[in-house]
Design a protein that fits this description.
Elements (H helix, E strand, L loop, with lengths): L1 E4 L9 E7 L5 E5 L3 E6 L4 E7 L3 E5 L3 E6 L2 E6 L4 E5 L2 E6 L5 E4 L2 E4 L3 E6 L2 E5 L6 E3 L3 E6 L3 E7 L4 E4 L11 E6 L8 E2 L10 E6 L2 E10 L2 E8 L12 E4 L4 E5 L2 E4 L2 E3 L1 E7 L6 E6 L1 E6 L4 E6 L5 E5 L9 E5 L3 E4 L4
Amino acid sequence: YHYEGAGYDPEDGGCCAIYGDIDDGEVLKIAIVGDNSITLTGDESAGICFFGDGTLAISGNGSLDINAATYGICLQGTDGLVTIANSEITINVTGTPSVGIYSPKFLMISGDIKITSSMLGITVIGDGDELSIEGGSVEISASSGMAFSRADIEHFTFISRMPDLSEYYDLYKVLASVNADGTGAAEFDDAYIESYKYVKVRHIVDFGIAIADKDGDETIAVIVTEDNYNDVLGDGTVSYDPEDDVLVLNGYHYEGEGIDFGYYCGIYVDTRDGMFNLCIVGDNSISVDSENGVGIVLNGNGYKAIYGDGGDEDIDCSLDINAPMIGINAPGD
């Protein structure tokens, strides 16, 4: 579906490309298949606009580009819900005012949303779980407003807020910047929420490996992800090659209670059905002092290869493991 023009004006309140009513308790589904686009040329326009307190559920494996002045996707009511699943949605709204997505409640299940707005990105009514992201990626650029906000209807104003991420299905990362184009983006800090013009919430791919590390006296589990695999702990002692499934220990030393993955251990590797490689470079040691402590856990039915790599200089390679129960535990077939 591709539309470009002035749009349909249902009630002299602005033009839109798709319009309708959703009563309380009803669910209207929009399935996005293939490439689709909506471009509205009027000064007061909305790409998709519905009225009522039902649910607008948008899903599908296609893409939708919306260009409008006032709203990209709008559900006007007091208790309605907009949900997004799987789809790739791009919204550009340029008017004053302008809101990428407006709904009393919003739920992102999966997919990708990118919003560029002159004022507001995603706006709901309420500051609790009315705005939730449980998966996928949301990237918002709001040049003169807020990425996420709630509407204070009584005082006709908008207040910055962050989405509820407590049900996000996996690891995620939130980046933010005071620049609308995202330059200088860093880890989100609540102290600057009123200043952020750019916010991105994205899924982080992890490789099913956890490494024990120390934060002061406290043991923490550092998950190997797409963001840190080249230098997992930030000190050059642990790295990972995802292409060949090789974990490299190069001067890694840990002593403490271990990380809890059923066993307290120094290194935990999730299920592998193919070949997993543990490469030892230089001197390394793991000492776990918990009662059911294990040095290394290697899960899965595949082969596990542990070997030293002394390099051109043929340096000695060693790994000393001290644990109450098992040094290397490799359950599986």
